[in-house]
Amino acid sequence: MLKLRDVRISFPSEEGVLVPVDTVDLDVNRNETFTIIGESGCGKSLIANSILGLLPKDAQVSGRIYLEDDDLLTLTEKALKRIRGRRVGMVFQNPSSSLNPVFTMRSQLAEIMKYSGKSATINKMTEITKSVGIDDPIRRLAQYPHQLSGGFKQRFAVAFGTASDPDMLIADEPTTGLDITIKIQLIEMLAQLHRERSILLITHDLDVAYTLSDRIAVMYAGEIVEIASASAFFSRQFHPYARSLMDSHPSRDMKPIPGTAPHISQKVEGCRFNDRCEYGHACCCNKHPELVQVDVDRFVRCHAYA
Amino acid sequence: MLEVKGVSKSYSSGNLFRKKKRLALKDISFNLNDHETLCIVGESGCGKTTLAKCLVGLEKVNAGMIKAGEHILNSDKGTVISEIMSRIQIIFQNPDMSLNPKKTIYQVLAEPLILQKVPKSQFNKIIVDSIESVGLGERYLKYYPHQLSGGQNQRIAVARAILMSPDILIADEVTSALDVSVQAHIVHLLMKLKQDRGMTLIFISHDLTLVRRIADRVIVMKDGRIVEIGHTSDIFQNPSHEYTKLLIENMNKMSLTTENKQEIENVVDLESPVMTRIPVLGK
Ligand SMILES: Nc1ncnc2c1ncn2[C@@H]1O[C@H](COP(=O)(O)OP(=O)(O)OP(=O)(O)O)[C@@H](O)[C@H]1O
Ligand SMILES: Nc1ncnc2c1ncn2[C@@H]1O[C@H](COP(=O)(O)OP(=O)(O)OP(=O)(O)O)[C@@H](O)[C@H]1O
Ligand code: SF4
Ligand SMILES: [Mg+2]
Ligand SMILES: [Mg+2]
Q: Which residue has the higher pLDDT, A203 or B281?
């Protein structure tokens, strides 16, 4: 369905080129939920936004991004516009900035539906609004973003991403700021959706990742460091970063990983995790590890498994 | 420390001709104790952010009052801008709202120092300590908020609030945009501030596993009201209100949390070597 090959995202800057995303390869299969987790700032949102050509103007993307047979990076803005919202729906991280402050939720939803060729009847709008767990849709649809609490904005963002009934959904942190009851409801809705659609999910919420994903990719400092089927991954993590990440969950040790991730302007010779890794070998500091297959359903970027 | 007495707050909606008022807070009363971590949980739209805004004086209450000792900080007569108010800081749910897009991260972090009349010569060191304390580094200082990720901006907002040296810090859903490792880092930082500076923390969160871990007391809100308030262990072990029971039941449904169920302890280990220096303002 969606294929990323050698995708590299960079920004020119005074101190040389910044490379927040480096040669990422991934496939989201038909009817699959593929989830990216990883350190805050590792490049997840940039990847999500690159697919539909929504990066800032100064960003440079190389590599190939295919949606079925379309080579997205070669398409014109006009052609991309036809794909956005119709074939691919998008839920942006941080709804406060992606929702339009001067229109009511109703007119924003109507706009999206009309654009994708659906008739925006009030019944249909009510139904969509209800599907994201909003039980007083008429009142909420009449409100402007600033009149809504964080969780309502988040739910409208999900409603907007799914309103046009796209074949594929890209959802960047769709459940942040939701209370547990609504979160479960939204997970159920996404699970329902996923039976007949592909989802690229980005989340920090390991519960959500666990419940929804077919496969998981873990990113660190602009690279994928582990890809595995969700069941294999959650029973055991191979990459040292992935393991430490799981251990810092509040239901476990809640120990932060010592040190900080390298800044995107820093050139790291060896493994990007080496200064924080407790298993580091001598070669980790000067040789960059490749992503290699270590099991039927697992790839890892780490010298310890090479 | 703070006394909240019978506070109600309404927002008007509708158009110019047909104004409707809707209560977002109904008769809220509680005391905030010195040096405690008070967590507020409750469904989306129940009024948590509204309550936080009233506590810092960003919204005027319609009835009742908020007092610090003898001083009335917020009542239907208005909010008081006083020394005490500046001792209460808030970190908002959405960092985009609180960071000025036209300022570099350095300028954002310099603001609290200018306000507190810290000598210019100390700026660099304090600002570097400050950004390191939230797990970022010096290299970020020259960028603008739009060049940072969502979670990075959230951490800048935390760093700035801490530089105001507050006695009371209100953190509104500050960790949900962070991965669990960075989340643990920020929680450690806040707990450390509590320990070292006696800071009082109001922590608004939907993450009950985390709340259970860090709270001294918990307030459960529903539909603008407090339905239950109590010590963390009481709330989680003997919830009395139906809504609290439902929350805890749902928390236990989250598979990852339950499958790893080592008994969740109400402790945060502050001895970990991870913590960097907390910035100190030499005054
Ligand atoms: N316009 C830009 N110019 C320069 N650097 C940028 C720009 N946008 C993002 N970056 C950098 O790219 C990196 C990746 O950002 P991205 O938003 O993709 O992170 P993320 O993985 O989504 O993080 P989070 O989980 O915090 O949302 C960050 O280090 C960020 O500072
Ligand atoms: N400026 C406003 N005008 C009108 N109504 C508002 C305004 N701000 C908030 N409200 C309403 O007040 C109620 C409480 O909102 P508040 O933001 O305090 O909720 P919350 O508990 O913080 O929710 P969340 O967990 O989703 O952030 C909501 O119904 C919201 O729609
Ligand atoms: S390559 Fe070396 S430093 Fe990197 S994660 Fe593996 S063991 Fe650790
Ligand atoms: Mg992001
Ligand atoms: Mg809120």
A: A203
Task: Report the DSSP pairing between strands A292-295 and A298-300.
Answer: antiparallel
DSSP letter assigned to residue A164: T
Q: What is the pTM of this model?
A: 0.93
Alpha helices in chain B (DSSP H): 48-55, 83-86, 95-98, 105-115, 123-133, 150-163, 180-197, 208-214, 232-237, 242-253, 255-259
Q: Which ligand is nearest to the CA of A42?
A: 1
Between CA A84 and CA A107 the distance in angstroms is 18
Instruction: Residue A306: name the closest of A288, A287, A292 by CA.
Output: A292
**Closest CA to ligand 1's atom 5:** B147
Averaged over B1-28, what is the pLDDT? 85
ipTM: 0.91
Is A101 an interface residue toward B (CB < 8 Å)?
A: no
Q: Check if the beta carbon of residue B5 is closer than 8 Å to that of residue B65.
A: yes
Chain B residue closest to A256 (CA)?
Answer: B181
CB distance B81 to B88 below 8 Å: no
Residue type (1 letter), B108: V
3-state secondary structure B8-59: EEEEEEECCCCEEEEEEEEEEEEEECCCCEEEEEECCCCCHHHHHHHHCCCC
CB contact under 8 A, A176 and B268: no
For A154, name the nearest residue in chain B, comparing CA atoms only.
B44
Widest distance between CA atoms in chain A: 65
DSSP code for A84? B
Atom of ligand 1 nearest to the CA of A47: 18
The reply to whether B121 touches chain A by the CB within 8 Å rule is no
Q: Does A104 touch chain B (CB under 8 A)?
A: no
Average pLDDT over every residue of A266-289: 89
Tell me which residue of B112, B205, B101 sits closest to A183, measured CA to CA.
B205
Q: Is the CB of A183 under 6 A from ligand 3?
A: no
Q: Do B180 and A183 touch (CB under 8 A)?
A: no
Cβ(A63) to ligand 3 under 6 A?
Answer: no
Protein residues near ligand 5, an ion, with CB under 5 A: A 149-150; B 49
Neighbour-count burial of A186, counting CB atoms closer than 10 A to its CB (0-12 exposed, 13-18 middle, 19+ buried): buried
Whether B12 is in the pocket of ligand 1, judged by its Cβ within 6 Å, is no
Q: Are A253 and A269 in contact (CB under 8 A)?
A: no
